[in-house]
Amino acid sequence: MPAAIRQLLNLTPGAVLEWSEEGGRVTVSRAVRHSTAEVHAALFGDAAQPAANAKTLAELKQGIRQHMKQRHAGR
């Protein structure tokens, strides 16, 4: 890639590029980076909405107690 284009796009070694072709023209642009918060929101939806089957802390602790009792019952 010519130096003028690298400087215009502020490219460094390892930079990710997006190539697109429209009507016989090829355009090059830097790939858009997303924050981990944006990726999490895209995968899991709105974090403000609690899951329908969410457990309370007391329920989680009780579940751990029951599991440990069952696991170590024969000892």
Structural write-up:
By secondary structure, this protein is an alpha+beta fold. It has a domain at 1-47: Pemi-like Protein 1, Chain: D. It is built from 3 helices and 2 strands. The chain has a two-stranded antiparallel ribbon with strand order 1-2.
So what's the CATH class of the domain at 1-47?
Answer: Mainly Beta
- Overall pLDDT confidence: 83
| Percentage beta strand | 15-25%
Shape: elongated
Summarize the structure.
This protein has helices at 3-8, 36-44, 57-71; strands at 17-22, 25-30.
Give short descriptive properties of this protein.
Pemi-like Protein 1, Chain: D, 75 residues, 40% helix, two-stranded antiparallel ribbon, alpha+beta, single chain, 3 helices
